[in-house]
Amino acid sequence: MNSIPAPTIEYGTLAPLLVVFGAAIIGVLVEAFAPRYLRKAIHVPLTLLSLAGAFALVLVQVLRGQVSTTASAVGALAVDGPSLFIWGVILVLSFVCVLLINDEGHFVASAAAVPGSADEEEAESAGGGHTEVYPLVLFAVGGMLLFPASHDLLMMFVALEVMSLPLYLLCGLARRRRLLSQEASMKYFLLGAFSSAFFLYGTAMIYGYAGTVSLPGINQALARGAALDPLLMIGLAMLGVGLMFKIGAAPFQAWKPDVYQGAPTPITALMASGTLVAAVGAVLRVFWVGLGNLDWNWRPVIWGVAALTMIVGSILAITQTDIKRMLAYSSIAHAGFLLVGVMATFGTAEQNASSLKAILFYLAVYGITTVGAFAVVTLVRDPGGEAGHLSRWAGLGKRAPMLAGVFAFFLLAFAGIPLTSGFFGKYAVFAAALDSGTQPGDSMGGWMAALVVVGVVASAIAAFFYVRVIVLMFFSEPSADGPAIAVPSMGTVTVIAVSLLVTVGVGLYPESVLGVADDAARSLFIR
Amino acid sequence: MDLYVPILVLAVLAGGFAIFSVAIAPFTGPKRWNRAKLDAYECGIEPTPQPVGGGRFPLKYMVTAMLFIVFDIEIIFLYPWAVSFAPELNDAGQAIAPGLGLFALVEMLLFIVTVLAAYAYVWRRKGLDWD
Amino acid sequence: MTTHYLILSGLLFAIGAMGVLIRRNAIVVFMCVELMLNACNLAFVTFSRQVGNLEGQIIAFFVMVVAAAEVVVGLAIIVTIFRTRRSASVDDANLLKY
C-alpha cells in the first residue's frame, strides 16, 4: 500500500485565504448564536475587517519580497506574482462591493416567504434583510481567491464551486422584483451546474491522457506524449467550455444578461467585477501553465471565441432597453477584449510578461469602473425598485447632473476614450496582441493583427451605445414622473467616489497601476 | 489471536451500547402513547392517505433530506484519513511508513469544527425541528 | 478492459447532457446534471485504474461532496421558485429575455 506523507502547508503564504474563509465560518456562527438585532452590527465590521486584513497580508508578502516561487500546499495552489496581484484586486473589489451590499433595502427579508403572501408582509414589517448575505459573500470571495491560484484542476473545480454556489443563492435574494431574481437564480444555477459538469468531464479526460491533474504535470505530459490523442482533444474542448462559460464568452454568454438583470445590483457588481477577474485569472493559468505546450492547438479556437465574443457583446448591447442588461452585454464584450490578451501570452518570457501585465492592468481598472457604474444604478429608483428601463433614464442629466455626469464618465471609460483608465487597458491589451503577432514562429502571425482590427471595430460599435445612453441622459427632456434619485448612503458615496478617483487617476497617471502590474507579471505564473 | 482482540472489544462495546440504550429508554424517555405510535412505522407520524397517482410530499421531507445529504457526505473524507492516520506496520510490528500524526489530527479537527459550524446554524435556526 | 467503463461513462454523460437540453422540469434537468457528474466520477475511477495512481479516486470523493453541496443549493432554489409559481417548468421561467 502506498503511504501518504503528512503534507506541508505554507500558512504564511496562504494567510489571506485563511483569513477570508475563517471570517466566513465565524459569520455562520454569528448567524447561529447572535440575536437578530445584533447580527448586522457584527457582520459588517467582521466582513470588512477580514477583507482589509487579507489585503494587508497580501501587501506584506509583496512588500517583504516574499513572493513564493514554488507551488504551495503540496502543489495544490500557486501563490505567485500574478496570483497576488489578482488577489489584491479581488479583495479591493469585494471590499467596495460589501460597502454597497451594506446598504439597506437590497436584500429580501425572508427568502422562504412566497412573494405577495402574508408571510412576506410580516417579514417586511419586521424589517432588515437576510444577514446570511455576508458569510455567503465571504465564501464566494474565498472561492474567487482560490480559483486563479489553483495549481491543479481538482483544486480549480472545487474553487469554481465554492465561488459559484454562494453566488447562485445570492442572485435569488433581491428584495424588489423577486420573481425576476428567483428566475435569475435558477437560470444561473442550472446553466452553471451544466457547465461545471463539462469542466469536470474535461478534467477527467485530461487526467486519462496525462495521468495527473496538476497543471505543470499536464504540460510535461503534452511535451512528451502524442499531441493528437482524442482524449486530449475532448478534454481540452470540454475544459474550455467550462472556463469560457464562467467568463461569459460567446457562444456561452446567454446566462449573463439574465443573471445580471435579475440579481440584486450589489451582487451583480460583485459578479461583474470579482468573478470576471477570478475567471480570467484561471483561464490564463490553465492555458499558459497547463496547456502552454499545446498553444498552436488552442490559440485558433480562442481566436474565434474572442472575435465572436467582442462582436456579439457589442452588437447585442445596442438593442438593449434595460440598463443592467446593457452593462451585462458590455461585460461580455470586455471578456472578449480580455481574451485577446490571453491570445497574446505566447512566445518568449518577455512577451508573456508584457501581455500578462496588460491583462492584469485591464482587470484592475475594468473591475473598479464596473462597481462604480452599478453603484450609480442602485441610486436611480422607481417606486417598485430600481429604474431599469433605459427610457426612465431620459433627462437624468437635467434632474441629477452630478450623478449622470459620473455615470457618463464611467461609460466613457468602458468605451475606452482617452484620458480614462479604460483607454490604457484596451491599448495595452491590443498592443500586446500586435507584438505577439510579430514574434518569430507565431503560428497565428497576421491573424493577431486581424483580431486587433476586430477588437477596434467592436470597440467602435460599443462606443456607439455608450454614447447613446449619454445622449439620452443629457439631451432629452425629463418626463414629469421620472425616477427618484435615492439619497446615497455613506457606503454608496464611498464606492462611487473611489471608483471615480481610480478611473480618473489611472486615466491620468496609468504608470502607477501599470508599474505594480508589471512587477506582478514579471515573475510570471509558476510553471 | 492478538489481532482479533480489538475486534472482540469493539463487538462487546457495540453490543453493550445497544443493550444499554434499549434497557435505559423505558426509564428515561417520556411516555406519550398515541395512535401513531402503535400504528405501522412511518417516521413517527400518522400515515396520511395518499391521493390516487401519488400526490405531493410536504416540503419538510425535502428539507430533512437536504440536511441529511449535506452532513452525511462529509464523512467521506474521514475514510481515507482514518486509513492513513496510523503508522503502517509490518508483520513484526515495526513501522515501515510514518503515520500522519498530530498534523492530520489537528487538520481533521478543524474540518469537523467547520462542519459543526454549519450544524450549529441549522440547529439554532430550527432546521432540525419538525413543526 | 477499462474501455467498457469509459464507454459507459461517455453514454451516461451524453444521456445527462441530452436530458438537460430537452427536459422541461427543473428537477429533472437538475437530476440530469447530477448524472453528468456521476459519469465524470466513473471516468475518474476508471482512469485511476488505467494510469495506476490513486489521484482519480481521491478526485471522485471531492466530486461527490461538491455534488451533494450542489444538490442542496439547487433544490433550495428550485423549491423556492416552485412555491412562488406553482410550477417547476423551465419554460415558465420567461420573465428575463432579450
TrEMBL record, chain A:
Domain of life per record: Bacteria
Known function: NDH-1 shuttles electrons from NADH, via FMN and iron-sulfur (Fe-S) centers, to quinones in the respiratory chain. The immediate electron acceptor for the enzyme in this species is believed to be a menaquinone. Couples the redox reaction to proton translocation (for every two electrons transferred, four hydrogen ions are translocated across the cytoplasmic membrane), and thus conserves the redox energy in a proton gradient.
Cellular location(s): Cell membrane; Endomembrane system; Membrane
InterPro entries the record matches: NADH-Q_OxRdtase_suN/2, ND/Mrp_TM
E.C. number(s) listed in UniProt: 7.1.1.-
GO MF, one annotated term: NADH dehydrogenase (quinone) (non-electrogenic) activity
Record flagged with keyword Zinc-finger: no
Quaternary structure, from the entry: NDH-1 is composed of 14 different subunits. Subunits NuoA, H, J, K, L, M, N constitute the membrane sector of the complex.
Organism (species): Nonomuraea deserti
Stated name of the protein: NADH-quinone oxidoreductase subunit N
Family the UniProt entry places it in: Belongs to the complex I subunit 2 family.
PANTHER family: NADH DEHYDROGENASE
Enzyme class: translocase
UniProtKB/TrEMBL annotation, chain B:
GO CC entries: NADH dehydrogenase complex; plasma membrane
Bilayer topology: Multi-pass membrane protein
Transmembrane segment boundaries: 6-27, 61-82, 102-122
Compartments reported by the entry: Cell membrane; Membrane
Keyword line: Cell membrane, Membrane, NAD, Oxidoreductase, Quinone, Translocase, Transmembrane, Transmembrane helix, Transport
EC class name: translocase
Listed GO MF terms: NADH dehydrogenase (ubiquinone) activity; oxidoreductase activity; quinone binding
Role: NDH-1 shuttles electrons from NADH, via FMN and iron-sulfur (Fe-S) centers, to quinones in the respiratory chain.
Alphabetical list of PANTHER family matching this protein: NADH-QUINONE OXIDOREDUCTASE SUBUNIT A, NADH-UBIQUINONE OXIDOREDUCTASE CHAIN 3
Name by which UniProt lists this protein: NADH-quinone oxidoreductase subunit
Species of provenance: Nonomuraea deserti
Automatic annotation (TrEMBL), chain C:
Signal peptide boundaries: none
The keyword Membrane is assigned to this record: yes
E.C. number: 7.1.1.-
Entry's transmembrane regions: 6-22, 27-47, 59-82
InterPro entries: NADH_UbQ_OxRdtase_chain4L/K (IPR001133), NUOK/Mnh_C1-like (IPR039428)
A GO-annotated cellular component: NADH dehydrogenase complex
Transmembrane helix recorded as keyword: yes
Oligomeric form and interacting partners: NDH-1 is composed of 14 different subunits. Subunits NuoA, H, J, K, L, M, N constitute the membrane sector of the complex.
Protein name: NADH-quinone oxidoreductase subunit K
Organism: Nonomuraea longispora
